[in-house]
Amino acid sequence: MVWKPHVTVAAIIERDQHFLVVEEHTDHGRAFNQPAGHLEAGESLLDAVKREVREETARDFEPEALVAVQLWRKSEQHPQFLRFCFTGSVSGQHMDRQLDSDIIATHWLTRNQLAANPDTLRSPLVLLSIDAYLAGQRHPLSLLQTFLDLA
Asked: Is 148 within the bounds of a domain?
């Protein structure tokens, strides 16, 4: 059997020291996370993060930089995730768009509000990503190159 990590994307969106997060249903109850999700077949990483933000927040996302590439596994019994975390900006909310079915609501929360209840975070990557962002960690999007269907 071939082993493959789950490839995911996430978006750090900050406004006035508040971060756009989604409150979502998980197998373990409600949790807060950055807008995030899985890379789909035939999709670039940038297209994936734009789609995930749109599906989970009803906002249009424009990636500006790569904050981190993170390999994470909760324990040996859990799958590994290769997560590409971006930062950028969002434009207006489209009230006519329906959010993904597992999304309860979107919130603008400070880092301290999120850190005050670590058990409500989807994973430790939520705060680790925000901390990397706040430390000024940014990498150019030109690092990412897509060569789908290149002959």
From this structure: no
- Asked if residue 1 is part of any domain, the answer here is no
Q: The domain containing residue 111 runs over which residues?
A: 6-143
Backbone angles phi, psi at 130, to 5 degrees: -65, -40
Within a domain: residue 135? yes
Span 75-124, pLDDT tens digits: 888 889 999 999 999 998 888 888 888 999 999 999 999 999 999 999 99
Please spell the DSSP secondary structure of 17-77, one letter per residue: TEEEEEEEEETTEEEEE-SEEEPPTT--HHHHHHHHHHHHHSEEEEEEEEEEEEEEESSTT
pTM of the predicted structure, to 2 decimals: 0.93
Element (DSSP H or E) covering residue 82: strand 80-93
3-state secondary structure 89-121: EEEEECCCCCCCCCEEEEEEECHHHHHCCHHHE
- In the chain, the number of structural domains is 1
